[in-house]
Specification:
445 residues, alpha/beta, Rossmann fold, pyruvate-formate lyase- activating enzyme, six-stranded parallel beta sheet, 16 helices, globular, binds iron/sulfur cluster
Length: 445
């Protein structure tokens, strides 16, 4: 039987040595890094799920490519190696592809980076899947069997089906499972590529969501899920239907949404009881209003009111901030630190503005000659600077960003947020019948 080896590059990467040291040492940062590193690649799990029974398959998730890992894959004698990688790990993925091709194996790469940089990816892999993998996966496998892979497989229309990912490839008790309730996002924030490049915004039918939840619950008791949605509840779907399937499944989950759910009683009243423990909310930049925010753009006070309404409903909020937008100064960095430390956010995420391929932000900075191309894709980690700021030098923004992280993720600040999370979980128990373990998973966010 032909064999396909799935090789997702996972993990959390930081390039700059001082940043790396900070990331590993700050109490509030390291657990989140571990949690991100443990997230499985839903794209490849889905392709595995739709691979015909006439193929055998193996799963080889890796944080760092090692010789031992390469040998493990080569030992499977795959007819094709399917690779997925983010921008920060794509150079490692290309190097891996070259290595296995030299050993006589063929590779295909897909995902957001490969979709936006197909001409680059095809120089390193036998084939590139541009856009969604599902519509073209059977063609890739047929061509691989015949030994006639095309350089590019382009999905011209969104997948009509929602195949069941093959979750059992993750083995027993993975730290988290992922599912999607939708793809893309109706907004178009100019720093965001995830929202529309792979697929236009679409909501998954609840029947397909229920099938995935059922498959996961068949393998794990009360599993912890990360919804791999860009913006859950973003449109006008019947949220009651979605919250029903989540509630009935008994899962616990984290998700990403925008602050407007804090103004929606139909979501708020049922979010905690549906198993949602934490929601990431993009509060973005305090100094720059990004183009494309759409209905998500609002005054900070209104957004924070909504955030606190979510927390009062028993769900912790991880407020996400972007540092380094146009207009950022030493003073604004200090103001951001103060704002975060004085807020009652249960958790925070602070990252550097990053001009990922395919974004309007990248085009803007490129036109202005401000991209630091020499730093390479491996610096696209969200923690390394990749462009020239407008009001600060590169060194000023780098050291200012480290200062923000040091203060925001200090031991005292992290302890305070832990207490806020505990108090939200306590109030949540009063609000729901659901038995929730204190701090279950939240500290890893
Ligand atoms: S709301 Fe979030 S997912 Fe949607 S475009 Fe903006 S950043 Fe991307």
């Amino acid at each position: 039987m032909p064999h396909v080896a799935f090789a997702p590059f996972t993990g959390f990467r930081v390039r700059e040595p001082e940043m790396l040291e900070l990331g590993m040492s700050l109490p509030g940062l390291a657990p989140r890094a571990r949690a991100i590193a443990g997230l499985p690649s839903l794209g490849l799990l889905t392709l595995a799920g739709m691979t015909p029974e006439t193929w055998t398959r193996s799963w080889h998730a890796v944080e760092r490519c090692t010789q031992q890992w390469v040998e493990e894959i080569v030992d499977c004698a795959p007819d094709i190696v399917a690779i997925s990688a983010l921008t920060a790990s794509v150079d490692e993925a290309y190097e891996f592809s070259r290595t296995v091709r030299e050993r006589g194996f063929r590779t295909v790469i897909g995902g957001l980076h490969a979709t936006t940089c197909a001409d680059e990816a095809v120089e390193h892999c036998d084939s590139v899947v541009v856009g969604e993998g599902e519509p073209v996966w059977q063609n890739v496998l047929c061509d691989a069997e015949r030994g006639e892979l095309a350089p590019v497989y382009r999905s011209n229309s969104p997948t009509p089906d929602w195949p069941l990912p093959q979750f059992d490839l993750l083995g027993c008790n993975p730290p988290r499972y992922t599912i999607q309730t939708q793809r893309g996002c109706p907004f178009a924030c100019d720093f965001c590529a995830a929202s529309r490049l792979i697929s236009p915004f679409r909501e998954k039918p609840v029947e397909a969501i229920a099938a995935e939840l059922s498959a996961i619950c068949g393998m794990a008791s009360r599993p912890l899920l990360e919804l791999a949605d860009d913006n859950t509840f973003a449109r006008s779907r019947d949220v009651a239907e979605l919250l029903d399937v989540l509630t009935d499944s008994g899962v616990r989950y984290f998700t990403e949404a925008d602050w407007r759910i804090g103004e929606r009683p139909d979501v708020l009243t049922r979010l905690a009881s549906s198993g949602c423990e934490q929601v990431l909310i993009g509060l973005e930049s305090l100094v720059f209003r990004y183009p494309g925010l759409g209905a998500k753009g609002a005054e900070l006070n209104r957004m924070m009111d909504a955030v606190y309404a979510i927390q009062e409903a028993g769900v912790a909020v991880n407020g996400c901030f972007i540092v380094g937008a146009d207009g950022e100064t030493e003073r604004s960095l200090d103001a951001l630190t103060l704002f975060i430390l004085e807020s009652s956010l249960a958790d925070v995420q602070v990252t550097l503005q990053t001009p990922f391929p395919g974004t309007d932000l990248r085009q803007r900075l490129r036109r202005a000659g401000r991209l630091l191309d020499e730093r390479g894709w491996s610096s696209y980690t969200l923690f390394d600077l990749t462009y020239q700021p407008d009001k600060l030098t590169v060194e000023q923004l780098e050291s200012g960003f480290r200062r923000v992280l040091t203060d925001v993720f200090s031991s005292a600040a992290s302890t305070r947020r832990n207490q806020i999370r505990r108090s939200i979980l306590r109030s949540r128990r009063d609000l729901t019948d659901r038995a929730v373990q204190p701090d279950s998973g939240n500290d890893e966010r």
